[in-house]
Amino acid sequence: MKERRIRILVAKPGLDGHDRGALVLARAFRDAGMEVIYSGLLPSPEQVAKMAIEEDVDVVALSLLNGAHMTAFPKVKRLLEKMGGKDIVVVGGGIIPEEDKKKLLKMGITGLFGPGSSLEEIIEHIKERVRKERWKE
Question: What is the side-by-side order of every strand in the sheet holding 59-64?
Fold first, then answer.
């Protein structure tokens, strides 16, 4: 029996044109056996949520380095819930101060990995959340 593959949308919502990290993550996710969809640069939170629903993803991986994480991340999460994607796992990363991490965690946005985080740690976090929350294993 073929193992189920995680479908993940990698997105950089808002006005953050620094995509090198997101592209590295996308390749690492693919190499880890995940099916990766990349949003391209500068999608709005509305576009990210719509794409996640249309592509029937298990995870939305958000990355921001411009300080807009407290606006963009929660907006994507709210839009997913509004559009019927309440069970889609949302993880984030970028330059996120500790006090903001606590607020994002309360909203159900986890990971919150910063520069220097290991790809293995990020991948395992995603796999664990998907197994427990999306696939209910």
Answer: 35-41, 7-12, 59-64, 89-94, 109-113
